[in-house]
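Consider this today:
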Amino acid sequence: MPPKRHLTARRVRLGTELRRLREATGMKAREAAALLGADSVQMSQIESGVVGVSAERVRRLAAHYACTDESLIEALAAMATDRTRGWWEEYRGVLPPVNLDLAETEHHATFLREVVVTYVPGLLQTPDYARAVFGYMRPELPESELTPRVELRMRRRAVIEGDNPTPYDAIVHEFALRIRVADRSVSRAQLRQILDQIEQGHVTVRVIPTDQDGFGGAGASMMYMGGPTPQLDTGLREAATGTAFIDAKPQLETLRTLFRKVEEATLDPTASRDFIHRLSKEL
């Protein structure tokens, strides 16, 4: 197959998983390449996502790697045959690739979990809230760059809306709900937006109250996106140095543990909904 014009998150992940399966056997890249009638350069391109690979080749490699996990093999084969051009590709060259990678990974996720301490989660934000956040953090952005950022954030909400929404479990700190990124009306509308999403039944929001004892997870902000099999789950952490996607098994287990620990500090979903409702009435 010819080289891919753009490295998408899905193609890169497919290559990463094929490399992991190969390395688990101790097989060299050139040995795996020979099985496909290719060379080590082509194998490197496949494992880095630079070139595509057919489902038949994925299954052949899995057999040579002695992989017996049929669900994983079929998930990888499906990734290899997926030629969908997602709506996020409209922003290629307009926004940083990491924004597109996030939208793509969310689109294919089987479930979503998120912990946010300082802001309302992006998937729950209103346009005015998102614009205030982007405008404050990057005040030098011209309208031509600010608008597409807000647009993409709003379009990402499609995964938790519509006819086949993805289950979404969000944990947010009371601090994030109270802080006014803009004015009172924007804050009020934002809280109502969260309540509306909760009422749809596929979104769960849990609140960490400010008077909760023993909560040391102020830096716990994260997103966890379920794959078709647990091996294909993806995590995301944001830091001052940038956004990092996580797919290594030990790190994914750390994120799952972190989510469970933070969840212990929250109000239950019903109490959280009532809390948000009361707060919206105070504004």
In short: Residues 38 and 106 are 33 Å apart (CA to CA). The beta strands are 112-116, 168-173, 203-208, 222-225, 234-239, 242-246.
